[in-house]
Amino acid sequence: MPMNSKIRFSKKRAWSHDLPISFLMQQGVENPGVLSLAAGLVDQNSLPVELTKKSFDHLFSNPKTARAALQYGTTAGSLSLRSLLLSHVSNLEEKSARELGMTVDNIIVTTGSQQYLSLLGEVLLDPGDICLVAAPTYFVFLGVLQGLGARIVSIETDEFGMRMDSLESTLGILESQGQLEKVKMIYLVSDYENPSGISLSQDRRGQVVEIAQSWSKQQKIFILEDLAYRELCYDGPVVPSIRSFDSTGETVILTQTFSKSFSPGLRVGFGVAPKEVCAAICDKKGNDDFGSTNMSQQVLATALRENFYYEHVKHLREVYREKRNYMLEAADTYFSNIPGVRWVHPNGGLYVWMTLPNNIETGFASPLFQKAIHEDKVMYVPGELCYATDQKLDFDKQPPIQKNHMRLTFGVQNHEGIQEGMKRLAKAVKSFI
Amino acid sequence: MPMNSKIRFSKKRAWSHDLPISFLMQQGVENPGVLSLAAGLVDQNSLPVELTKKSFDHLFSNPKTARAALQYGTTAGSLSLRSLLLSHVSNLEEKSARELGMTVDNIIVTTGSQQYLSLLGEVLLDPGDICLVAAPTYFVFLGVLQGLGARIVSIETDEFGMRMDSLESTLGILESQGQLEKVKMIYLVSDYENPSGISLSQDRRGQVVEIAQSWSKQQKIFILEDLAYRELCYDGPVVPSIRSFDSTGETVILTQTFSKSFSPGLRVGFGVAPKEVCAAICDKKGNDDFGSTNMSQQVLATALRENFYYEHVKHLREVYREKRNYMLEAADTYFSNIPGVRWVHPNGGLYVWMTLPNNIETGFASPLFQKAIHEDKVMYVPGELCYATDQKLDFDKQPPIQKNHMRLTFGVQNHEGIQEGMKRLAKAVKSFI
């Protein structure tokens, strides 16, 4: 018997090796005393224990609805939930479903919005296809793109989000290099971007739809609008989604989740796309899992129908607004006297994006990260994870990977944890000034 | 603005078009009066409403465990659930985890076992790689393989399951054609195969491990053992799994689900694999969804810990044994006087595999299927869906696609539905004799 036969994995297996998220989680496990300003968990104490119980009891008080929740659902997700989602999106947009060009058939329920992002990538992207992203952007999605063998081209951002002039000039350069036909989508976290906390300005929301449409010369260039943080708005203007500027709904694919606004443990997210895209996603999802957990879909549908959900979101905005303020105050207290340190004041979401002087690197291997985690016992997400620069593209416009940022979250820690974490982090940073 | 730009999907999108499962479900929707002996749903009345409620109440009676269930879990799944799964498998095997060479680190929790099958395919199979399967076998897995662009080579079966002589001769032919290095796995539903109801004999379980090992000349050839129906045993011998014949656990990857034995609405399945394979699956799953629904994992863990689960399985065996008997009696009543019709008596699972005379085809386009669905208002799964024959392989040994079988299930219908369904089906069949 040959004993030395090796496992030969698929080629794409290598593309999802060494994900930064795994490294981060491992650091948390290996350093239990570390205070995490990195973990993307939500606030523990405001998790909707009572409202979930009320929803569950409501559902299980009737054997018929209880059995329906315990039986197989459908691949696209519960029809009653999808009807509620249609109203939900319609309310958020302050437009009728008809005006938005949406029906329940445009909606697919997934295991968090993460699965929607992944499925859309699977059906659209071949290895070598290009996705345009903001620099910085949601680093877990960069991992998804890498796992599919896609190429990631970064676009400059400023305080109003992705720059439209940079987007157009990049598309122009890609066209001149004969690569425009590889561009399949533009990914945008339009509200309170993870990690920067910045929202795309209203002007640019309309412009980006026009740009995507006018550059869809051979094949469709979609906008993938990730609205994970949409409902966590604390102050500042609430602007209409990019999707609302796309009257036919043929250009913008929207995705949202209930992980941030209700409970990540239910794993319910969804997306809205043209029907042809929905059919492709459903076929892939049919092979992958036949449909996401039916019981949590039914629990969430009950929470939406009985208004428990909306009650909770209102409460949650208060909780997170206070935590956001607390982190910003702690930043003032501990960082305002460190020269060259600045940070973004986010109007929503869960993150504070902090910039250090250019010469202080924040990456996993940096002296700062190592000191922070091992000596000062505090952890953050290195900003460089949120930049991807396509090495194959040789032109000026692509922004360089910036190595002097930190993504800090006020999501998981309580007030004391935020205070103590910021204090420890300032101590670590100061030692490198 | 160019208005005619087309959506260009990924190449692999085309591989999961026109799945038979979608067609079947569509038939159900379009023909609401049809009695389905096709749908893979489980028995509606025995769904564990009270036990799920007890588990949920138990979990939510303590704010700490309730919050943990509502928070993010980990990609591999809840550690407490995985510990319970280790004991669960160990009890079923009547061997200690140590004897089986299993730890919690070998276990990954997925959205049903379907997601495990799909993830394993993703990390092992490149387009053109080969998976060996029984003829007939679980048709939804054939869809997964096609979706990955894999090639499917069928192996003959008899009343003891996959024939080992055919397996060896096929491997020999593949080697002589220079294609052995493409073979990545052998897929086996060892207990009460879907669709045939046949179990792999104990002798062959040991043999197939030896065969896989001895033919792993260049790369590892895994056995993927799908034990979805393992706990639904009604009579006949309960034989040890193929995995139990693999003392190092390096060759056999096992997967099970709680969809059949408890509730498909919870969508909890799992798999046991070597650690290197687990790492690959976790990386892919991290990109796909970060982990399956945490709340249903915690509900199921409670049901296992409090023995509610085992209580339920005991009850379920009685329910399904009776329904199995009912369908076999109805087959006797309505089909025994039709010449050339025969069927398998299954000792477990959910299916009765019925064979018609050679000249009566059962496919979607066949006169029988059309008459059954439109006139007699009864639906079955055409047996030919459960056969895949690789067109690129040109040799005698590959069994032909058989077109005269039907997969009938006693899972979803009650006694009256089974009786009436079998009566209608016999009427349809008789008209073609």
UniProtKB/TrEMBL annotation, chains A, B:
Gene3D superfamilies: Aspartate Aminotransferase, domain 1, Type I PLP-dependent aspartate aminotransferase-like (Major domain). Pfam families: Aminotran_1_2. The keyword Transferase applies. Keywords: Aminotransferase, Pyridoxal phosphate, Transferase. It comes from the Bacteria. Residues 58-410 form the Aminotransferase class I/classII large domain. CDD domains: AAT_like. This is 2-aminoadipate transaminase. It comes from Gimesia aquarii.
